[in-house]
Every structure is written in structure tokens, then in C-alpha cells.
Design brief:
By secondary structure, the protein is mainly alpha-helical. The chain has helices at residues 21-25, 43-65, 69-95, 103-116, 121-133, 148-152, 162-168, 174-177, 180-187, 189-209, 213-235, 256-261, 268-273, 290-300, 312-322, 348-360; strands at 100-101, 304-305. The chain folds into 2 domains: 41-320, no CATH class; 328-362, no CATH class. The chain has 16 helices and 2 strands. It has a two-stranded antiparallel sheet. The chain binds stearoyl-coenzyme A and zinc ion (ZN) (2 copies). Residues 42, 45, 83, 86-87, 91, 117-119, 123-124, 126-128, 130, 156, 159-160, 164-165, 168-169, 227-228, 230-231, 234-235, 262-263, 265 line the site of stearoyl-coenzyme A.
């Protein structure tokens, strides 16, 4: 008997295509009265992130006023590579298993992932699976109901809520622990990460085009900080601002601004509705989604395979049933409106014209 059940934590989202509403309905009741959660700040993290953001501002100053143009270009390249290590690697490949990758691609992605320093993939993916399954509850590591700051970075500045650990244990992670490349990354993380994320990115500009230490080091701090904030925006902004064409009952939304910075990870209403789709959006590479273009290219050369997606019919029906009405049925059948740049208010008949123009020009 549990007379004190006040705040039951139940699965509030789906994790893969085998999850269904029945399971969500099977509530797991927890007596929350026994542990009143108190926020315990982690001062080490607060100081490190403060230093990092200060260093990043100085890096911006260096890039603008004293660094070589090659250092700027190199920083942009590393931002893209580290970003792919998160989006194509930790997120779409490992956390969601939305496609499969051959060993060379997995090795490349784990290297890129280490460059992004967001902790070992196994730990990242564990938190992320809990985030999907228990979205916006205390068991969600970056519960967006606790506000913009908490879901953006605050969650990394304090101890985890006990529900995260308790409910995280219910999630199957055996596939992650069975992957030898991920085990290697986890086992040697404290050696690999400093070399890949800090030493090499500082040394390369100094060695190859004579950059100063201070410029190279600070530019790299900026590169790392921008990648972090782009990632965090998916948890904060994309859980708050934007349309909900697929499921109006959840917080994650379609956010172009976030998609631009996060290599295509801003289409978050779609992603939380169909998390197993490797595109993490309906339109894939045709609408601000560098990561999808990358996975498609890898599939072309045989490095990525078994790409999972969702049929147009299922998407349309779901949008009809639970969407907020903003789903554009005329949009996705052609690539003319591919980039979606502000053509939302173009009348349908003009869009048809755009399709014809597009076909002619190809
Ligand atoms: C960073 C991560 O920034 C960012 C991730 C964002 C995710 C975004 C997702 C959005 C979608 C994808 C978009 C990508 C876009 C990319 C764009 C790129 C251009 N289940 O954690 P601990 C247990 S990292 C089950 O220490 P504390 C477990 O037993 C930045 N169990 O908890 C564990 O032990 P072990 C750099 C769990 O002490 C034990 O608890 N890194 C779970 O409360 C202790 O775990 C940092 O700054 C679970 N989910 O500390 C470090 N979790 O691990 C930040 C825990 O041995 N982190 N357990 O099994 C920390 O310092 C600490 O984790 C803490 C909490 C202070 C935050
Ligand atoms: Zn999310
Ligand atoms: Zn996800």
C-alpha cells in the first residue's frame, strides 16, 4: 500500500518504435515524500564553466583582432567535426540506434565525439535515453519544466535528482556496453579527451601556421564553448520555443535557430515524436540538417546502413491526430522549398510553380 503517492513518475515519452501508449499508461508510482530533493551545487563545475566562458570571450577577441585567418577556419572545422561526433555519433547512432555504422565510421565518430568533450558516449547516451523516456519529469536529467537556465546548463552545475539514477537503471544499455569502441573511449577518457579536445587543437595551429599559443588556445576554448551551447540549446530553447506540428501535447518544438547552430538538431517536436528516425526531422537533409546530409553521404559510400525512418503516411496521420495544425502537407513532397527559407506564407499555387522551376533547373 502506498498512501503517500503524490507525484508519480511515469514514462512520458517514447524511446523506440516498440514503446507504445500502453507502456506509458503503466504508471510507476513512487512515494516522493521519503526524499525531499535539495539542490546541491557542484562548485568545481560552476568555476570551470565560468572560466571556460571567460576564456571563450577572450578567444573571440583573439580571432577578431590578432589570430590568423587559418585559425578561424580551423576553429569552424573543429566545431563541425565535434558537432558531428555528438549529433551523428552519440545522438543518432548510439543513443537512438537510428542507423548502423561500419567500424571505420564508428572510429571516426568516437574521435569527433572526444573532440566535443561531452563525456563518454556511454554516459551521454544513458542520460539521453532517460531524457526521452521520462521527458520533463524529475527523472529527466535536464527537465525543461525547471526553466531555461536549468535545462541549458544548470543541470550540469548540481547533483542529479535521485529519480534520474533510479529510473535510469530501468533502461537497457547493454548494446552500449557491448560496443568495444565505446568501451575503449570510456576506459581511456581521461587520457584521450585532454589530447583530442585541448592539446591537438592548440598544437596544430602553432605548428602548421605559426599561431601564438594564446591565440590557438583561446580560439579552441571558444570553439568548445560554442559547441556546448549549441548542444544545450536543444535542451532549453528547443524544449520551449517553436511550433508543434506532430505532437502538441509535448514541450519539444520545431526551432530553426537551434537547427542552424546544432547541425540540424532543432527539429525537436518531430524528434521526440519519432526518436528512431535517423533524420531527427521530417524533411531530413532538405531543410537545415547537416548531420542528415553527412549520414546520407556515409550511406552512399557504404559506411552507414540500415537507416531507420518513418513513412510519410504515418507522419501525416500522426500530425493530423496530435499536431497543432501547423503541419504543412504541401511542403514535403518536393525539394523546391527545400531550405524552408520563409516560404511558409507562399500560397500553394505558387509553391507548385516553385516545384516546376526546381525540376527545370535540375
Ligand atoms: C555536456 C553534456 O555538456 C551535454 C549533453 C546534452 C544532451 C543534449 C541532447 C539533445 C539532443 C542532441 C542534440 C545534439 C546537438 C549537438 C550540436 C553540436 C554543434 N541513469 O553523473 P553522476 C548514477 S558535458 C542511471 O556523477 P552526480 C550512476 O550510478 C560537458 N544511473 O551524478 C553514476 O555512476 P557511474 C562536460 C545514473 O554525482 C552515478 O549515478 N562535462 C544516471 O549527481 C553518479 O553519476 C562536464 O561538465 C542515469 N542517467 O553529478 C561534467 N546518471 O557514472 C558534467 C547517473 O559510475 N557532469 N547515474 O555509473 C558532472 O559533473 C556530473 O554528472 C554532475 C552530476 C555534477 C552534473
Ligand atoms: Zn529533448
Ligand atoms: Zn534524442
Amino acid at each position: 500500500m502506498a498512501p503517500n503517492v503524490t507525484n508519480a513518475v511515469v514514462p512520458t515519452g517514447v524511446l523506440d518504435e516498440t514503446d507504445n501508449e500502453m507502456e506509458v499508461a503503466a504508471a510507476i508510482a513512487v512515494d516522493k515524500k521519503q526524499e525531499k530533493h535539495e539542490v546541491k551545487l557542484v562548485w568545481r563545475n560552476i568555476l570551470l564553466f565560468a572560466y571556460l566562458h571567460g576564456g571563450a570571450l577572450y578567444g573571440l577577441y583573439c580571432l577578431l583582432f590578432s589570430a590568423s585567418i587559418y585559425t578561424t577556419l580551423f576553429s569552424i572545422l573543429l566545431y563541425q567535426l565535434g558537432g558531428l561526433g555528438i549529433t551523428a555519433g552519440a545522438h543518432r547512432l548510439w543513443a537512438h540506434r537510428s542507423y548502423k555504422a561500419k567500424a571505420p565510421l564508428r572510429a571516426f565518430l568516437v574521435l569527433c565525439n572526444t573532440l566535443a568533450f561531452q563525456d563518454a558516449v556511454v554516459d551521454w547516451a544513458r542520460d539521453h535515453r532517460v531524457h526521452h523516456k521520462y521527458s520533463e519529469t524529475d527523472a529527466d536529467p535536464h527537465n525543461a519544466k525547471r526553466g531555461f537556465f536549468f535545462s541549458h546548463v544548470g543541470w550540469l552545475l548540481c547533483r542529479k535528482h535521485p529519480d534520474i539514477k533510479r529510473f535510469g537503471k530501468l533502461i537497457d544499455l547493454s548494446d552500449l556496453y557491448a560496443d568495444p569502441i565505446l568501451k575503449f573511449q570510456k576506459d581511456f577518457y581521461l587520457v584521450l579527451m585532454p589530447i583530442v579536445c585541448f592539446v591537438a587543437p592548440t598544437w596544430i595551429p602553432m605548428h602548421f601556421w605559426g599561431e601564438t599559443f594564446v591565440n590557438a588556445f583561446s580560439a579552441n576554448l571558444l570553439r568548445y564553448t560554442v559547441t556546448l551551447n549549441a548542444t544545450w540549446l536543444v535542451n532549453s530553447a528547443a524544449h520551449m520555443f517553436g511550433l508543434k506540428p506532430y505532437d502538441r501535447f509535448i514541450n519539444p518544438a520545431e526551432n530553426l535557430f537551434v537547427a542552424l547552430f546544432a547541425l540540424g538538431e532543432g527539429w525537436h517536436n518531430y524528434h521526440h515524436t519519432f526518436p528512431w528516425d535517423y533524420k531527427t526531422s521530417e524533411l531530413g537533409r532538405y531543410r537545415v540538417n547537416t548531420t542528415c546530409a553527412f549520414i546520407d553521404a556515409m550511406a552512399k559510400i557504404g559506411q552507414a546502413y540500415d537507416l531507420k525512418t518513418v513513412s510519410q503516411d504515418v507522419v501525416d496521420k500522426r500530425a493530423e491526430r496530435t499536431g497543432d495544425g501547423s503541419h504543412d502537407h504541401h511542403h514535403h513532397h518536393h525539394e523546391g522549398a527545400a531550405w524552408g527559407w520563409g516560404d511558409a506564407d507562399v500560397p500553394v499555387e505558387h509553391k507548385k510553380e516553385a516545384v516546376i522551376m526546381y525540376q527545370l533547373s535540375n
